[in-house]
Amino acid sequence: KTMSGAYMNSMLTQIERRFDIPASLVGVINGSFEMGDLLVIAFVSYLGAKLHRPRMIALGCIVMSLGCLLISLPHFLMGRYQYETMISSSENSSSSMTICLLNQTQSSLPTEMPSEDCKKKAGSLMWVFVLAGNIIRGVGETPITPLGISYVEDFAKAENSPFYIGKSATTVLGPFLGLMMGSFCAQLYVDIGFIDDVTLSLTDARWVGAWWLGALICALLNLLVGIPFCFLPKSLPKEGEETDVELSTKRKLLCPFIPDFIPFVKSLLCNPVYMLFIGVTVIQFSAFIGMFSFMPKYLEQQYGKSASDAIFLIAVYNLPIICTGYFLGGLLMKKFKINNIQSAHIAFWTSVLEYLIYFSAFLMICNNSPVAGLTVSYEGIEQISYVETNLYADCNSGCDCSVKAWDPVCGDNGITYVSACLAGCTASNGTGKSMIFDNCTCVASSGISSGNASAVLGHCARGESCDTMLQYFLIMSFVCCLIYSLGAMPGYMVLIRSLKPEEKSFGVGIHTLATRILAGIPAPIYFGALIDTTCLKWGTKSCGGEGSFPYPSIYLLLLYLGVPAVLRGLSYIPCVFILLILKRQFKSSKGKNSESSMEMEVKGPEND
Length: 608
Prior knowledge:
Growth Hormone, Chain: A, 7 strands, two-stranded antiparallel ribbon, about 5% strand, five-stranded antiparallel β-sheet, 22 helices, mainly alpha, single chain, 3 domains, globular
């Protein structure tokens, strides 16, 4: 279950490129999993314990398998992926469309993609299959955890159930395997086995990995793990001496009946610690969900890493240390017998410490390689331009170039040009990735060219400082994950201890529901919409879709890091109120305890 979820999150960038959709729509696809879960969570939670729970879990695994299968389906319906380029990989084909043609117009030359095939190409509505598949995957996920835990709790000894239910190893192993598979699939070209020579590099903004392959693997694995559950009995022999009355009480806690609903809701609404804690969780989860959803995209755009490398780095630097922090936090609570007010202080101050360290990420910036007409002028002067006409200059005025396509070349002056035509290149030699463009007038006219005014395919390399800044960012991320996860378990215990025993199951369920509705669904959507605003220029593709030009680093950094910083800063306001309430409750209970002990001392001789 967790492997499938981590894999889908790692493929968001590939899905965005394959279907030519904006990041905001990718956020909708990401949040659709939570939507599917919410569709059936009430039904499963209320009636699940009365049904054959192992078979319900098996059914959930099968439904998840069907969802993954549906997600991969568009790959087999859309045809081959054709990225926007005029460069031919064949020696017998003309590459003249990409270079400056002084005697012809670009409009007089044939287009690469026939319009009748556009409905099967990128930009079609095939992404709806991915959306529907993710919703179905969320529906299938619903019964697995609640019914699995209740099944174990009903038939295990009290001292054994925590061992059976303990999932620390699997909850980190699943996402780790999912991200590793995502890193591997992102290295493979989307049409693997059908296209031999691809002119794109892994770091090219048009590269699309084999996003569908991992979805097929997840579909198969989900189906296989569901089979054994079909053969488990509806009930198991009880391990302990627990009576039927106690068993009935447990089931009532796990699945409250309708008559208990209104009193429980009223009690929870009048619980200030519980309500404030929900507010803290929603705000902080909004920040974290948005960040982790688009973290591979951030590493790609900010530090020039390939999608494969970005996913791999997230898996190695973040997941293991988060698991370690959860374990150490729980161990410290058990060893030192930490009370509620102490738990709240540990959770608060570890979060504040991590928050302060987080601001160092604003210093770890790596500028994009300069792009003529977008981030620098054709003379090499730094500027940011959203005006399409700035892509034209005297050096390419007679070339009649298109400014809609994104087909970058790197001049030997270290400046990237939107296309070889806009670089003023009039000749080319070689094929595929080895193609070199010569006689580039814009490269020569920049005044900083030290070669023969030529250009090669792809972006210019970034400065050496980018690798150093990336290492600093990853170390900062590692430290922040460790510190924050250390306080996660004490913080969660504040929630648990704020509830009465009979309210715990229902209260935790409402807390999870609120988090999913208010954070899990909207956060990826508005984060994606904000990231779209940092796009420097949108180009029109041959099939009518829109393709994005590179994101300016400083704008992406300010939004990607700034929005979570603001959200988390706001979350500390209810945190302070929680600490004040708990402090008052602690003093009140301490006073009552001292009074009762004095009464015992006074009554002691009489009792004797």
